[in-house]
């Protein structure tokens, strides 16, 4: 394997000192003749020289790298958020390094320590789902102890983050349940997410509050405890179809797609027999055989706000506690109907 070209290699080829090479390549020391600069720059280009960013970072105390530690890159919400963050980071001259934790705390900490070693300028973090409160506190304390600017995205299970951008999931679930009620549904089932997650608890509570506000019975047997997966969604669809519900709110779109499969397996159809709604508005749900009514998270705004928070912390060393909770939007499509 060919070794990386260094300033020493350019010095050997051109005959100039390492100091002169370094100053010329970094556009410093105007006393260096233009002819000398030209020779050095030409040699660097011919030899394929690339500056060592880590070495430059040590001098400037900045890396121009920001990390995004996310729990599951297969989840379209997080992969799309990563795309938005990357676009926003480029506006500040940052490169985004993405790390996937598979919802595992130990893996999350390994990634954070690696990013710390790389002297990143900041970290976007969505906490691993299986983290305990003690583990989340250790995670945030590690970032603060190492003076790393951070912003939590969407997940803060125990509401202890100092910097965070999230969505009002209670309001989103309330809106979609209210929509089903206003279409005339009374027996409305709910497929939850994993209740270790704050967002899943908020969505379940939003469903419950809407049922309560409209004086509809809250039946425990109409709540199926899922985990945001297609398989659990399908099992929930089969279970709730057997309970004779006329509508189902699934706490994310993957669960809703699974529920659609379960409803079909039960010999029923959407929306003729059961109205179905999801949450997230991932790309392809609008192209399903029956386009899905769902709750849209403002992913573009999440990415913009989170990047602005990191930038503000980097510029000012600290910007004080900053928590932004954004509004979701109900998107009505053909999977729900009036009865």
UniProtKB/TrEMBL annotation:
Highest taxon of the lineage: Bacteria
Domain HTH lacI-type: 5-60
Pfam families tied to this protein: LacI, Peripla_BP_3
Classification via SMART domains: HTH_LACI
UniProt entry tagged with the keyword DNA-binding: yes
UniProtKB keywords: DNA-binding, Transcription, Transcription regulation
Membrane-traversing stretches: none
Keyword Phosphoprotein set for record: no
Molecular-function annotations in GO: DNA-binding transcription factor activity; transcription cis-regulatory region binding
Protein name: Degradation activator
Source species of the chain: Megamonas hypermegale
């Amino acid at each position: 394997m060919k070794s990386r070209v260094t300033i020493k290699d350019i010095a050997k080829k051109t005959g100039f000192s390492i100091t002169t090479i370094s100053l010329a390549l970094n556009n410093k020391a105007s006393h260096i003749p233009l002819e000398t600069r030209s020779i050095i720059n030409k040699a660097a280009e011919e030899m394929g020289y690339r500056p060592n960013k880590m070495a430059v970072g040590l001098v400037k105390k900045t890396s121009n790298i920001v990390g995004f530690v996310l729990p599951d890159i297969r989840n379209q919400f997080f992969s799309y958020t990563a795309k938005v963050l990357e676009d926003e980071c480029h506006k500040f001259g940052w490169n985004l390094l993405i790390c996937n934790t598979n919802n595992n705390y130990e893996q999350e900490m390994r990634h954070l320590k690696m990013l710390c070693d790389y002297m990143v300028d900041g970290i976007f973090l969505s906490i691993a789902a299986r983290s305990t409160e003690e583990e989340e506190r250790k995670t945030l304390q590690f970032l603060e102890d190492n003076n790393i600017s951070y912003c939590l995205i969407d997940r803060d299970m125990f509401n202890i983050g100092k910097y965070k951008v999230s969505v009002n999931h209670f309001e989103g679930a309330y809106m979609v349940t209210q929509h089903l009620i206003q279409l005339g549904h009374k027996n409305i089932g709910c497929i939850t997410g994993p209740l270790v997650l704050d967002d899943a608890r908020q969505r379940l509570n939003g469903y419950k509050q809407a049922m309560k506000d409209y004086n509809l019975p809250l039946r425990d047997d109409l709540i199926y405890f899922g985990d945001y997966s297609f398989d659990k969604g399908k099992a929930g669809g089969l279970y709730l179809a057997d309970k004779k519900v006329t509508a189902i709110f699934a706490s994310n779109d993957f669960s809703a797609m699974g529920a659609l499969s379960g409803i079909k397996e039960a010999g029923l159809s959407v929306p003729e027999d059961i109205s179905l709604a999801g949450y997230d508005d991932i790309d392809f749900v609008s192209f399903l055989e029956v386009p899905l009514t769902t709750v849209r998270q403002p992913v573009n705004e999440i990415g913009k706000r989170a990047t602005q928070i990191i930038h503000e912390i980097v510029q000012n060393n600290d910007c004080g506690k900053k928590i932004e909770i954004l509004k979701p939007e109900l998107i009505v499509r053909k999977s729900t109907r009036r009865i």
